[in-house]
Design a protein that fits this description.
- It is built from six helices and no strands.
- The longest helix is centred in the first third of the chain and has 88 residues.
- The radius of gyration is 39 Å and the shape is rod-shaped.
- By secondary structure, the chain is mainly α.
Length: 247
């Protein structure tokens, strides 16, 4: 004799399908959360690398600016030397003119020597460099510590991308603008901070570029002026040498 028939529940299969769907939805939600975190971390790393390259470009710009300023100082010294040579050459020409005449030579012998005058600089001002460039250099040099912290070979061990110790420093208004997940909020905050730093860095690079442009233009004018002085000095030297040979 067979036992009593098992009761059949038509809703059991539907319950199992609902449970499976809920499990699958929870798994998909966890996957999406991991994917969002992964992409946020990748974006934070990308902005950090871009910021590091920006600091590197700024450091190179400062080094180029310092070299350009030193070049300007050398040009200024060269111009002063040319001015002094031109003044000495004029003095030599006056002596040659007096030597050519015996009477003039006797007169000049008994005449008291005039006081030596300092060589004229032909209106050449002292060289101080371009003020705009110097201000840009000072502003960029203040970021040297940030460059060392962001450089992959100089980065401190406690300055890793997973450091969320400063997450509590944001205000309540700023905190409302970020996701509720702590890690995701930290990534978003880091991305925003990096973008702000990149904006400031690009502004400083722009000022450096404009300062370099102004300095180069001023040194171009100095080179043109120096070239004309050297050409004039060369002509005067040849003329003086010719007059000496005729004595």
């Amino acid at each position: 004799m067979s036992g009593p028939p098992r009761s059949y529940n038509p809703f059991a299969e539907e319950d199992e399908e609902v449970v499976e769907e809920e499990a699958g939805g929870a798994e998909r939600q966890r996957y999406l959360q991991r994917e969002v975190l992964r992409r946020s971390a990748a974006t934070a790393d990308s902005t950090a690398r871009s910021l590091s390259l920006l600091y590197e470009s700024e450091r190179i710009g400062v080094a180029a600016s310092e070299e350009l300023v030193r070049q300007g100082e050398s040009l200024k010294r060269t111009e002063q030397m040319v001015d002094k040579m031109d003044q000495d050459l004029k003095t030599s020409q006056r002596h040659i003119n007096s030597i050519k005449s015996v009477f003039g030579g006797l007169v000049n012998y008994f005449k008291p020597k005039p006081p030596e005058s300092k060589p004229e600089q032909n209106g050449t001002p002292e060289y101080y460099g371009n003020s705009r460039l110097k201000e840009a250099m000072m502003s960029s040099k203040e970021q040297e510590s940030k460059y060392q912290e962001s450089h992959p070979n100089l980065r401190r061990l406690d300055n890793s991308d997973s450091d969320f110790s400063n997450i509590d420093l944001v205000t309540s208004v700023q905190r409302d603008a970020y996701p509720k997940n702590q890690h995701l909020r930290a990534y978003h905050q880091k991305i925003d901070n990096n973008l702000d730093e990149m904006s400031s860095g690009l502004s400083r690079l722009k000022n450096l570029a404009l300062g370099l442009q102004t300095e180069i233009e001023e040194q171009d004018d100095m080179l043109d002026r120096l070239t004309k002085k050297v050409e004039t000095l060369d002509v005067n030297i040849k003329s003086t040498d010719k007059r000496i040979r005729q004595l």
